[in-house]
Amino acid sequence: MKHHKLSLLYSLLFCAVVSCEKPIIPGTEEKGNLTVSIMQIEQMPFGGGITRGAISQNCTRLNFAIYDSLGTRVRQINQVSNDKDFGTAGFQLSKGNYKVVVLAHSSNGNPTMTNYRKIQFKNDDGFTDTFLCYDSIEIADKPVSLPVSLTRIVSLCRFVISDTIPSHVSRMRFLYTGGSGAFDATTGLGCVNSKQSEFFAVEPGQAASTFDLYTFLKEDQGSLHLQATAYDAKDNVLNDREFDIPMKRRQISKVSGQFFNTSTSGLTVIIAFDPEWEGEQEINY
């Protein structure tokens, strides 16, 4: 009888200890020996850290990924702008050397980050302004705090339709090649040949419609072959035109003209200056 009482007591004590422990799920740790915090995004100034609200002005999603010395992803934390810890991620890691990749973007989903040399976004999720930090760290006996600064790595084709959207047009599709939907985190440059596609709903009667198309260039300069197509509500093609657009890394190529009035000729391409982007150059043809 005494033996059974002792066994019951030990079982109760074991359950009490286990119930006090907080299980650690890989990729979801709130605390650990590595803390990664965003300190700057592109043009935002240093100031001992920026607020969650300031970060969300530039993006709606953050991805933190850790890779070991062999390039294997060992941890990943994905955040959205309404998360209370948006902008800071904690990891529990074994001693060793690691690569850290932090992304900021506003896509409808998270990219595939299995390989840091080929981080890929999907057409279905969309392509947006994207910022990157790639860094190396060593984990030893003491906890590490890593402040990171994110840099823009995309180029933007801003397509402007200056004439009025006809009453029977329901949406626009832009299919473009020459850039990449994936990039190498070590360089921020595109790493595959992609067919990128974006659909946009439009309002009939609207004038001066603007469509932003993002890509990762594979070099500092390149060009996009762009097919712009107008559809009606039943997905019948109403108008279809193609363009070749010069692009530069981290810059805006603004393309404007009358899309539906095909009697006009000429297209204006401006590689434009923006205080948040680099460079200024105009090309007319």
**CA distance, first residue to last residue:** 97 Å
Output the radius of gyration: 25 Å
Mean pLDDT: 84
Low-pLDDT windows of residues = 1-30, 280-285
Helix/strand-derived class?
Answer: mainly beta
Description:
With 285 residues, the protein is mainly β. Helix content is 8%, strand content 44%. The chain contains two helices and 18 strands. It has helices at residues 2-20, 52-56; strands spanning 34-41, 61-67, 73-80, 88-91, 96-105, 119-120, 131-139, 144-152, 155-161, 171-177, 182-183, 195-201, 209-215, 221-231, 237-248, 252-257, 268-272, 281-284. The chain has a seven-stranded mixed β-sheet, with no helix packed on it. Strands 13-9-16-17-18 form a five-stranded mixed β-sheet, with no helix packed on it. The N and C termini lie far apart (97 Å). Mean pLDDT is 84; it is low at 1-30 and 280-285.
Short description:
The chain is 8% helix and 44% strand. The protein is mainly beta.
Could you list some keywords that capture this structure?
5-stranded mixed β-sheet; elongated; 285 residues; 2 helices
Topology of helices and strands:
Elements: H1 2-20, E1 34-41, H2 52-56, E2 61-67, E3 73-80, E4 88-91, E5 96-105, E6 119-120, E7 131-139, E8 144-152, E9 155-161, E10 171-177, E11 182-183, E12 195-201, E13 209-215, E14 221-231, E15 237-248, E16 252-257, E17 268-272, E18 281-284
Parallel strand pairs: 1-8, 9-16
Antiparallel strand pairs: 1-4, 2-3, 2-5, 5-7, 6-11, 7-8, 9-13, 10-12, 10-14, 14-15, 16-17, 17-18
